[in-house]
Amino acid sequence: MPPNRDADSQGLPTSLEASREHAAVGARVSWVDGRRAGGPSARIDLGWLASSVELLGPRLSRPPESVTVVLVEDEEMDRLHRRHCGVVGTTDVLTFPDPDASADGGTAGDVVVCVDVARREAGARGRPVEHELLLYVLHGLLHLAGGRDDDARGAEAMQREQDRLLGLVGVAPMDAEHDA
Fold first, then answer.
1. What is the mean pLDDT of residues 6-33?
2. Whether residue 180 has pLDDT greater than 70
3. How many of the other CB atoms lie within 10 Å of CB of 32?
4. What is the mean pLDDT of the chain?
5. Core-most of 1, 22, 59, 101, by most CB within 10 Å?
6. DSSP symbols for the chain
7. Is the pLDDT of residue 15 over 80?
8. pLDDT digits over 110-120, tens only?
């Protein structure tokens, strides 16, 4: 996960604006599906994913206040990764904190997850793509809540919290080598 310090919440892809499909999850998390219709990543159980995030959100130390989860494919993630982090190539998740979010309440901002990366990683791990996507969303929510993984101690703390949360919905812990 690249650093999220310099990203801004105004940087969501304008190409998604016309294709936004909002499905409210509780009052805290909304979803934007920016994938190409009928593309290779089209068959994902978004209902399970949204329900899991809805269940786990309140169990975070700083629950989601106003978060949008955006699903994208490699091409769009590469564009965002270049624009906001100066890194060429796709990545699993990027977070865009809302600069106006309250410092002492919940979390606010955008979590952008790459379905193509999740599909490849899930295949390599022999697990459902929805489990990998849930990991990415949780990782992003933890970053929005102030979690840092730019040193070993922070990365270990985030890994433990991710594994705890995944376990609450019956998802096996991810292996320690994963760089979500």
1. 43
2. no
3. 21
4. 79
5. 1
6. ----TT--GGGS-GGGGGG-----BTTTEEEEE-SPTT-TT----HHHHHHHHHHHGGGSSS-EEEEEEEEE-HHHHHHHHHHHH---S--SEEEEE-TTS-SSS-EEEEEEEEHHHHHHHHHHHTS-HHHHHHHHHHHHHHHHTT---SSHHHHHHHHHHHHHHHHHTTPPPPPTT---
7. no
8. 999 999 999 99
